[in-house]
Amino acid sequence: MSDRTEADGPRARVSVLSGASRATTALRRRSRGSRHSRKRVAFMHYGYYDVAFQYFVEHVLDADYVRMPAPTRRTLEIGTEHSNDYVCAPFKHILGDYVEALEAGANVLVQFTGYCRLTYYGELQEMVLRDMGYDDFEMLNFSFVAGRSFKDYVTYCKRVVNPRLSVPAGVANMLVLFRMVEDLDAYNDYYLANAGFEREPGSFERAREAFFDDMRCCATMSDVNHAFRRGMGALRALPTDKPERPVRVGLTGEFFTVMDPPSNLELERKLLSLHVELARAITITNRFLRYNEPNVRRSIADYAAYDMGPTSSLTIAAAKRYMEEGFDGVVHAKSAGCTPEIDCMPVLQRLSRDRHVPVLFLSYDSQTSDTGLDTRLEAFYDMLAMRKAKTI
């Protein structure tokens, strides 16, 4: 945990929704001298990145972060009820998240920009929410300033969230945020590669939750660096029974579904329970912080001559890399109707034929069966294990 104490000054509130009740927990320092009415800001659920979202709200925007518990079936049902049948599943998940965020007391909702229909989701979701009767909120929709100057981003954040936002402090804290995201992804890489072989059931998950809690208390670059070292040290110290030649599976696919556990029905947890070594190259670090589209395109030139949109190039490049590194199988996860990832499927099939590595295609919508997914994953694992046994 952080070495900071109450002597460091008062802290901002984080709202937490628990059933129908609301609780507030003091977690972050409040900026001294701030006289504006502090906004209560919420993001959609997106894997473990809520840790970084909280930092962005509290240390870059200088606002209060509304942190919600894990989504339930109700979350998806709300989003589905108020969405068109043909819209992709992430729209429904995010809309349900927004409704529960407003119920938790949020008055600002954040939506990213994107390279597909995500660009239009924020504006459409705002219209749906207002039609549902939610009027007392604003949307911080970065699609409105996508591609514009840094000054435009700052002006927009000041107008919607915090007119007293400090630009120097915000820029410095954005650098801390980038490091935090890189560390979260690096930690998860090790977790996926080893959690399936833990000697004590649940030990890796408990260590990961402790690491996330530690990260949530970070305010400076030094805090983040120390939290990462502590977290990795604790994770590496856990005993495992990992075989010399484990079954190895690589995950790829649509940027939201493959990374968000509620959206993919806990795909990673299910695969880890089968005692496999997992890898997932689709992360914010790999897609944004360290991404080089020309290099990625060159690496898949034999299979794709054109950019098919969003994360298509990375989807194909990740699958190709897994196969080159000797992985036993690849799982491609996407939401139903995701056109760019549908375009990737013939390319992945060709890769599978050329490299003799099986690919399991999973498509999710609001009606996808959890039991059906279990059956497909178990059958896929059995096939990979039998193929691997024949190569000994």
Brief write-up:
The chain has helices spanning 50-60, 73-81, 89-103, 118-131, 150-160, 167-194, 203-216, 221-236, 267-273, 284-289, 293-299, 312-324, 339-355, 370-390, and strands spanning 11-18, 21-29, 40-42, 64-67, 108-111, 138-141, 248-253, 277-280, 329-335, 359-364. By secondary structure, it is of the alpha/beta class. The protein folds into 3 domains: 6-165, Rossmann fold, CATH 3.40.50; 167-242; 247-392, Rossmann fold (3-Layer(aba) Sandwich).
Structure commentary:
The protein has 392 residues and is α/β, with parallel strands linked by helices. The protein folds into three domains: 6-165, Rossmann fold, CATH 3.40.50; 167-242; 247-392, Rossmann fold. Helix content is 48%, strand content 14%. It contains 14 helices and ten strands. It has helices at 50-60, 73-81, 89-103, 118-131, 150-160, 167-194, 203-216, 221-236, 267-273, 284-289, 293-299, 312-324, 339-355, 370-390; strands spanning 11-18, 21-29, 40-42, 64-67, 108-111, 138-141, 248-253, 277-280, 329-335, 359-364. The strands form two sheets. A six-stranded mixed beta sheet has the order 2-1-4-3-5-6, with helices on both faces. It has a four-stranded parallel beta sheet with strand order 8-7-9-10, with helices on both faces. The radius of gyration is 21 Å and the shape is globular. Mean pLDDT is 90; it is low at 1-35. InterPro entries: Dehydratase_Activator_Redct, FldB/FldC_alpha/beta. This is DUF2229 domain-containing protein. It holds the Pfam family HGD-D.
